[in-house]
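[recover] target loaded
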């Protein structure tokens, strides 16, 4: 690290008033990983990849960048962004996985302190195995870093009950663009706390988070129910997420699939095990080009009797409008359920498609317009599928603190729409370029039809796009930038602010 700092100071005329001898981190010679991400759509070569040992090292990196007229810094977790958000062209990429803060579960059994670069799957295993506790809110895929998801939102089937992951932290340690290491919460440095959560890495790098825990169940009853009518599907999904606590499932999601035997996009994607049987003969000829699947899960303990679990499941399922005979169930352990996408990852890697480009599109769509979205997008533009899951499930705005940085559509109920494209051979498959073009067609169609939506994991190439995205929150976003990262050193890959941006 010392040699790199000294060489950089010499070659870039950086003020060398601070000694380089106290930098404890490493510099990686291999820059290839930091030059691309999971999306596989962009490549940008950094000047260096740094592996800090602690928050003070991160602060030193940022203070070094501040003494240069042009250098930028991007925090990189597990490289799972899709549009170059964790890249820094000719800048410094900070490998957050090097922060070695051990996971510390508090004696109160309610909180755990974890490093910003820790993977959620490691947090899960440590808390469950050692303490029979678990964080309350998750993402579907857990090979993501804590700081990465907290910089966006972090949503999954538990978010209707507990809010996104950003609502399940009580304290952060953040290194601001000014090079300050600050502990923040709702009561201490609150503007930074609210800004950093969902702030896309624009105000600081999250080096530690205190997350809320709850007792971990032992087992999960996992259920899928198929629908032919969109209105029935949305009514049932919205009913489940708005029921009182204790009177609904612990997890509620859903997805759209193609009404065909396509192995990737169609009927075979619904059964919960490879031996499950999907009988399309139960549908009338009037069923549309796409069908819908409501996915729910109930947690329980080993000591709960099977009859007790069965009784509760049937009570909660009572009155749902799913297609008779189109219900699929599986019983599995809690960690196995939460790590279910890990199995998908392993299979995709074995087939050579995990490393392929992933032009994903993630949206929040208002309940008021979700029917129009179904008609315009699912039943028309995407009637042949996307070569991967098309997630669709409701969330509750009241579970999100409006002081945080995430932009949401109007209304109490809005839907997550996640088009998780894989670039792999499938029926009527598109090239990567065609997938990107189709994503733009979807967004243009939403605008044309007046559909109220916000991009989740947003990406725009112009300031005007970001202004539209944040709407009346834009001024607050700018003010936070001016306060915590006035030289716009952080997160250049988001393309929101340029280096040495001046707030007016």
């Amino acid at each position: 690290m010392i040699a790199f700092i000294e060489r950089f100071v010499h070659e870039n005329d950086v003020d060398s008033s601070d000694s380089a001898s106290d930098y404890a981190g490493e510099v990686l010679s291999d820059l290839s990983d930091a030059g691309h991400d999971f999306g596989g759509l962009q490549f940008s070569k950094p000047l260096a990849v740094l592996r800090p040992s602690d928050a003070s090292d991160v602060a030193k990196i940022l203070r070094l960048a501040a003494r240069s007229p042009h250098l930028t810094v991007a925090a990189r977790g597990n490289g799972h962004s899709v549009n170059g958000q964790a890249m820094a062209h000719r800048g410094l990429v900070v490998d957050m996985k090097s922060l070695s803060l051990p996971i510390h579960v508090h004696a109160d059994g309610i909180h755990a302190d974890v490093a910003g670069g820790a993977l959620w799957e490691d947090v899960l295993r440590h808390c469950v195995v050692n303490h029979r506790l678990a964080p309350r809110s998750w993402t579907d895929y857990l090979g993501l870093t804590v700081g990465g998801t907290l910089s966006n939102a972090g949503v999954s089937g538990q978010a209707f009950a507990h809010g996104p992951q950003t609502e399940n932290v009580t304290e952060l340690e953040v290194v601001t663009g000014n090079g300050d290491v600050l502990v923040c919460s709702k009561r201490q440095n609150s503007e930074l706390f609210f800004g950093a959560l969902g702030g896309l890495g624009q105000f600081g790098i999250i080096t530690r988070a205190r997350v809320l825990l709850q007792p971990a169940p032992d087992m999960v009853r996992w259920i899928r129910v198929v629908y032919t009518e969109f209105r029935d599907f949305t009514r049932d999904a919205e009913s489940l997420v708005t029921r009182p606590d204790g009177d609904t499932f612990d997890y509620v999601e859903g997805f759209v699939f193609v009404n065909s035997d396509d192995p990737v996009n169609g009927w075979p994607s619904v059964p919960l095990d490879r031996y499950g049987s999907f009988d399309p003969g139960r549908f009338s000829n009037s069923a549309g080009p796409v069908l819908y699947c409501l996915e729910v899960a109930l947690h329980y303990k080993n000591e709960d009797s099977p009859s007790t679990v069965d009784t509760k499941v049937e009570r909660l399922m009572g009155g749902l409008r799913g297609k008779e005979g189109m219900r699929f169930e599986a019983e599995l352990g809690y960690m196995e359920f939460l790590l279910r996408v890990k199995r998908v990852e392993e299979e995709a890697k074995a087939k050579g498609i995990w490393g392929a480009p992933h032009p994903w599109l993630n949206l929040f769509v208002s309940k008021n317009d979700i029917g129009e979205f179904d008609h315009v997008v699912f039943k028309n533009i995407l009637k042949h599928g996307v070569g991967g899951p098309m997630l669709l499930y409701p969330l509750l705005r009241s579970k999100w603190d409006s002081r945080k940085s995430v932009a949401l559509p109007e209304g109490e109920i809005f839907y997550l729409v996640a088009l998780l494209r894989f670039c792999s051979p499938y029926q009527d498959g598109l090239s990567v370029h065609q997938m990107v073009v189709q994503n733009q067609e979807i967004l243009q169609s939403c605008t044309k039809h007046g559909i109220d939506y916000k991009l989740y994991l947003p990406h725009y190439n112009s300031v005007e796009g970001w202004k539209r995205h944040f709407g009346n929150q834009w001024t607050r976003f700018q003010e936070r930038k001016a306060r915590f990262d006035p030289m716009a050193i952080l997160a250049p890959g988001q393309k929101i602010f340029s280096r040495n941006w001046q707030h007016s």
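[recover] notes: The mean pLDDT is 93.
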